Amino acid sequence: MTARNILALGAMSLLVLGTGSALAQQKTLTISVYGIAQDAYKAALYDPFEAQCGCKVVVESGTASERLAKLEVNASAPAVDVIAFSDANALEAANKGLLAPIDPAKVPNLADIYDFAKDPLGNKMGVGYTFYGTSIVYRSDLVKIESWLDLFKPELAGQVALPNITGTQGPITLFMLQKAIGKDDPKFADAIDLVAEHKNDVVTFYNSGSQLTQLLQQEEVIASVTGRFSWPSLMKLDMPIAWAAPKEGQTGGMNVLALVKGAKDPELAHQFINYWLSAEVQQKLAEGLVDSPVNTKVTLPEDKAEGLTYGAESAKAINFLPPAQQLENRDAWLSGWNSKVAN
Amino acid sequence: MFANRRLGILLLAPATLFVLVGFIIPVLILLAGAFRTGDAWSFANYTAFFSQPLNREVFLRTFRLGLIVTAVSAVLGYGVAMAVVEAGPKSKGRLVALLVLPLMISPVARTYAWLVILGRTGFVNVALTSIGLTDAPLRILFTETAVFIGLIQLFFPLMVLPLISSLENMPRDVVPAARVLGASWFAVFFKVILPLTREGLVVGGTLVFVGSLTAYVTPAILGGSKVLMLETLLYQRVSVANDFASAAVIAVILIVMSILTNILLKRLASVRRRR
């Protein structure tokens, strides 16, 4: 190595060290979220937060199971500070000791959100940031739906799709069917039997919201079960599709924000959670039809509210499947389903 | 010479390293996972996998569909290959181009086309009901039939192309010779054409069978969750259940089945040749 080379190398390493320390001066917050609507989140949430805190928000996205697996692998040196999950996934992470409790004193906006979202997992392990109703959607020109059991009406045979057990909507559909049957069983044995009995009448057990939209569009099915988040794209089909109000009520789900145990900067993480729950951010996300607001101070015009689950009334009407029940019985549902329905 | 060889090894090193680190080692780690239970090596993952009726059914369905698709495309493939070989040079080129064309379209796009064709309000059902063959639209989508149709369309060219080339290599006179000596068309095919073109059949058969076993998009879109195949089950195990042990088991099964098919078909071809 010549002297010139050594000099060049020295200069380069100085340069690298220099930029390294410059980066270190800026605080970073790493968040792990679902991969959807990232442009809208960036505009409504990430960018304004960066401007406010003078820090950098690093976003990791993926499916819930991918992100949960990552969190588990990195438990000793967490790469993520704040994570967004469904309530059941968050409880699973909490039970595995991957989450830390949120300090309500550092999240003043908690005062403005619905009670059911304040501490849905217990032990302050998470706070709901959005929720949705799930019900039956159907072609109002062809069929009438008044109960969850109407999904198995003879006129729907061969023209109904149900959500697969492997998604979020599958278990809550069984939850409502079990309720409609009128027997109390956390393992949903009667509901699974009912689906099994009619499995040849079910066109398919769909896996994603976009698949359902397509099934309805091509008139493969005239009724199914889905979350309110699918409603905007269903309305765009310009077909007489209605959102049922079954007599047993609607079900739904909630997504929560959680603080990762061992987060590098818990202070900043709390700030971010607080900001996400603020009326300002919740308003913007609601107007973009991204997330239904949990903040009670959000006000929406009729046309925006239509695409979301909005208001205290709709919130009260939702039967949430408790996350603890989901975790405890998930394997039983899956094996019951696999041996009776999928077979 | 020595210097050249060293240079050669040096030049090969980056690519080899890349394949080794980026592909072979991760695959080995993944496959090894199929033989681990806790801290010990065992076949427990396999017995657990096959003790589930659903998994057994999916395995048999995948195997069965693979065989049917291979057999049907062989039968149809001979017909098409013979027609192509018999055609004049100009139309032969055009026919081969038509055969290859679907291979250039993404399987996703091709499969989505079937979604439209086979649906309740699709072309097939509209045609069937309007000529009065059925009263109500047939349920084709999300059945094994739909997966079968999709797979046939996907892999048919891979059967026909090797058959064309082995038919072209077959001496032209053997068929008229056999006919002159009194063989029926049936005998001509089984005693003359088939033995002389079996290598094409082996290549085509392997491609179609292995392709059908490992296809993902077609069974996922046309079969859905009611017609699970090994590939769609594998996806479900990984992305939904986070169950890498049984996913690794499925991966091993698929790899072993593919290798066995190839060995078996090759053996079949070479045994006949020696006779």
What features would you describe in this structure?
The complex is a heterodimer of chains A (343) and B (275). In chain A, strands 1, 2, 3, 4, 5, 8, 9, 10 and 11 form a nine-stranded mixed β-sheet that branches. Chain A contains 14 helices and eleven strands. Chain A has helices at residues 3-25, 38-53, 64-73, 87-95, 115-118, 169-181, 189-197, 209-217, 231-235, 266-277, 279-287, 302-306, 312-316, 323-340, and strands at 28-33, 56-61, 82-86, 99-100, 127-139, 160-163, 202-206, 223-227, 241-243, 250-260, 318-320. In chain A, helix 4 (87-95) crosses helix 14 (323-340), helix 6 (169-181) packs across helix 7 (189-197) and helix 7 runs parallel beside helix 14. Chain A is of the alpha/beta class. Chain A has two domains: 3-130 and 254-318, Periplasmic binding protein-like II (D-Maltodextrin-Binding Protein, domain 2, 3-Layer(aba) Sandwich); 132-252 and 323-340, D-Maltodextrin-Binding Protein, domain 2. By secondary structure, chain B is mostly helical. Chain B has a single domain, classed as MetI-like (MetI-like fold), CATH 1.10.3720. In chain B, strand 1 (36-37) and strand 2 (40-41) form a beta hairpin. The longest helix of chain B is centred in the N-terminal third of the chain and has 34 residues, at 53-86. Chain B starts with a helix and ends with a helix. Classes of the chains: A alpha/beta (343), B mainly alpha (275). The interface between A and B is medium-sized, with 26 and 22 residues.
